[in-house]
Amino acid sequence: MGGFLSGVFIIPGLQEEERVAVQKRGHQVLRALHGLCIQAEQAPVIAVLCSGGGLRAHIACLGVLSELRRHGLLDVVTYLAGVSGSTWAMSSFYAKDGNLEDIEAELKRRFDQREWDWHGSLQEAVRSAKTLKNYSLTDFWAYLVVSKQTRELQGSHLSGMKTLVDEGTMPYPIFAAIDNDLHSAWQKEKNQSKPNIGGRGRVGGQKAQGEMPGSASDLPSGEPRRSKGS
């Protein structure tokens, strides 16, 4: 998703790409409902919203998705939204084409086997302490603990999930994240231009609308980032 300028945009209604993807997803939702012996003439729009909270949110989101799949309910979900830590789980969910068994097995392998690059993580923690203006325990935790859990997902990008999302095979994703280091610059620019801030903040294989600088579409998905809630 690189090469796009960050900004906040106001777009009433759904974009055409999102409208088409949601319409195709509706066919999948109806089939899933019929499989659950639930009759419906029109697919309802069901969204699953996952909160932030770093490592806790990551594990909780994966647990919710796993249980939804086990009960046959994941296929009736139209939108899957997350912020901060839950987007780490979402990134692996889409990068693995929704294969939750593989995701769980991979997480177990990472924690069972001692292949963590402790030296590299420590170097990054020290570097960030010297360069970040608002360095906190959250940064230390991210580099020394969370990086072990998410490091193999940082190469994935939102554009990689475009095909499955556009075809309606998987829920339409909404990623949300705020980079506190860029927030002051964004606030300054906002005060100078006085725009009417608003927008949708949706992501689906293209530039997000309604996002702030440093949000999920500008960087690889699954990358640990700091926010007040994580």
UniProtKB/TrEMBL annotation:
Which of UniProt's keywords are assigned here? Hydrolase, Lipid degradation, Lipid metabolism
One MF term in the entry's GO annotations: calcium ion binding
Span of domain PLA2c: 1-230
Q: Pfam families per the record? A: PLA2_B
Signal peptide region:
none
| GO CC annotation, single | cytosol
PROSITE patterns the UniProt entry points to = PLA2C
Q: Does the keyword Hydrolase apply?
A: yes
Which region ranges are annotated with the description Disordered? 187-230
A biological process (GO) of this protein is: glycerophospholipid catabolic process
Reaction(s) catalysed by this chain's protein: 1-hexadecanoyl-sn-glycero-3-phosphocholine + H2O = sn-glycerol 3-phosphocholine + hexadecanoate + H(+); a 1,2-diacyl-sn-glycero-3-phosphocholine + H2O = a 1-acyl-sn-glycero-3-phosphocholine + a fatty acid + H(+); 1-hexadecanoyl-2-(5Z,8Z,11Z,14Z-eicosatetraenoyl)-sn-glycero-3-phosphocholine + H2O = 1-hexadecanoyl-sn-glycero-3-phosphocholine + (5Z,8Z,11Z,14Z)-eicosatetraenoate + H(+)
What PANTHER family does the database record attribute to this sequence? CYTOSOLIC PHOSPHOLIPASE A2, CYTOSOLIC PHOSPHOLIPASE A2 GAMMA
Q: What is this protein called?
A: PLA2c domain-containing protein
Could you tell me which species this protein originates from? Urocitellus parryii
